[in-house]
Design brief:
The protein is an alpha/beta fold and 321 residues long. The protein is built from nine helices and 15 strands. The protein has one domain: 3-Layer(aba) Sandwich (Rossmann fold), CATH 3.40.50.150. Bound molecules: S-adenosylmethionine.
């Protein structure tokens, strides 16, 4: 576990190590479902890119001319082994990956509001395949730890980090609930696209708050419902066909959650309705996407008849001690 050397002395390394070991043993089982993602990771991590560019919308790892056509075919075959690609875009040794989400748009909305990331310790909670970790890398942080408990994005992100040779970035099979082990550890935490998947959002935000150093900053992004009242929608069964979605707040509700979770400054800096351009089916993601989650006769409603989603962006600070 490479990132152990980065952690402050008060962090209980043995506890983190035991979770890491248990989860690694679990995903290392020689079962078909586990090997499906582990095998492409093991093939791809052997390729090391010379050219890297994390400053533009497309995260670039390696140029086409760095590998032979034969090797590029092997790389593409293994990259496709990680399908469905949810976050992107990436260019890997000249292979363009058009993911379901145009994650560059989210990054563009928050870029002007970022705290200083240079030489900072950062956590990206629910980091998926690490698209935003790469964008953070352009700011030369001290290190970035991605928390990602799902096996497919975990292996995909680790393969990308290995090919890019990012020694100050890591992804571990941890969930937001494990932040309790990281008291006052991070200068900056990103919690994007996660809160509506938590059944107890306030407890989750309190956990996030205590993992920040005094004076630290949270960048929070969430699905939201439109409206000015401080209320949250709780669907009967699914919201936009997603069963794992719980409380979907208005912007005002999310601001109140963050204040009552212990954040001292809370600034909602952007809100926008979602659309089918930003999240859509592509050649790298063949399943249903945004257009299938929305009522075809009324774009303001989900297929269940709930208000169609917005996205909200909030910057929240912890008081300096
Ligand atoms: C909607 S995606 C958001 C991805 C990315 N942060 C973004 O904003 O585009 C939610 C991510 O959270 C991950 N996740 C699921 N359970 C989690 C948990 N308990 N803690 C942290 N992340 C979790 C999922 O696997 C998925 O990658």
């Amino acid at each position: 576990m490479r990132y152990r050397d980065w952690l402050p002395a008060h962090v209980d390394l043995a506890a983190i190590e035991s979770i890491h070991t248990a989860r690694e043993q679990w995903v290392s089982q020689p079962k078909k479902g586990f090997l499906r993602y582990r095998v492409p990771y093991e093939v791809l991590r052997e390729f090391r890119a010379e050219h890297r560019d994390f400053t533009t919308d497309t995260v670039t790892i390696g140029a086409a001319e760095e590998v032979s056509d034969e090797k590029r075919a092997v790389i593409e075959q293994n990259l496709r082994g990680f399908m469905p690609w949810r976050k992107g875009p990436f260019s890997v040794f000249g292979i363009g990956i058009d993911a379901e989400w145009q994650s560059n748009r989210k990054w563009a909305r928050l870029q002007a509001h970022l705290p200083d990331l240079h030489d900072k310790t950062i956590a990206d909670i629910g980091c998926s395949n690490g698209y935003y970790i790469f964008r953070m890398m352009a700011h030369k942080p001290r290190w970035v730890l991605g928390f990602e408990p799902a096996m497919q994005p975990y292996y995909c992100g680790r393969a990308l980090l290995a090919m890019a040779g990012c020694d100050n970035g890591a992804i571990d099979l941890l969930g937001v609930e494990h932040l309790t082990l990281f008291a006052e550890t991070f200068d900056v935490i990103f919690l994007m696209g996660v809160i509506y998947h938590r059944a107890a959002p306030l407890d989750c935000l309190r956990t996030v708050c205590q993992a920040l150093k005094p004076g630290g900053t949270l960048i929070f992004e969430s699905q939201a419902i439109p409206g000015d009242e401080p209320v949250a929608l709780f669907a009967e069964k699914t919201y936009g066909k997603a069963p794992g979605t719980y409380f979907i707040p208005t912007g005002a509700c999310a601001v109140n959650w963050l204040k009552r979770a212990g954040f001292s400054s809370v600034d909602l800096f952007y809100a926008h309705p979602m659309n089918g351009e930003e999240q859509r089916r592509t050649d790298w993601m063949h399943f249903e996407s945004y257009e299938h989650f929305i009522d075809p006769a009324n774009q303001d409603k989900t297929v269940e008849g709930y208000p169609a989603p917005w996205r909200i962006f909030i910057k929240a600070g912890v008081r300096a001690s």
